Amino acid sequence: MGIDQRLAVIVHGGAGWVMWVLIGLSVIAVSIILERTVSLMASRDDVRSMKEDLLAYLAQGDPTGAIERLEGSSSVEARVLIAGLGCADKGPAAAEERMASTSQLAKLSMEKNLSFLATVGSNAPFVGLLGTVIGIIRAFQALDAAHGQVSSHLMAEVGEALIATAMGLLVALPAIAFYNLFTRIIGSRLARADALGREVLAYMKTER
Known about the structure:
It is found in: Cell membrane; Membrane. The protein is mostly helical.
């Protein structure tokens, strides 16, 4: 089958299949949004209280107590601090590397499937535009078949073309919005983990 024949088949099929593609993308995107929301909410903690408790334990020279306090938290900040305090006997350099490694692994875990959201947000409008192009081509074909007379079939094709564009935007906008929101949350958590990690390193350097 030549290229012209393949294009003819695509156009003949109408923009309906484009709608189904967009619906499928939206379902997957919503699933990812809900999963990431639940995951990020489950791993949040009161960082201010955590910092106060951490500094209190370190001021008393009790890193073991600090670790026990942090083990009660499921937050990223706690995991990073535990990694650093767990190798306090090996020196600040080793603790810093361990915390950096834990932070990177946590980042990868929190960013799970976010690239799909970014891809949907960036490309869904173009998928909708493809449906619009197909609808316009079919509208011209209907206009030609009607010898230039406006018919209900022509209006249906034009309406389908416009709906494809609108649907592409409706799929893209939430995906981009939640991608930006999740990225901001992840960045903030990693920044807080880094700031608390500096407190741990400062304690270790003072002790040594």
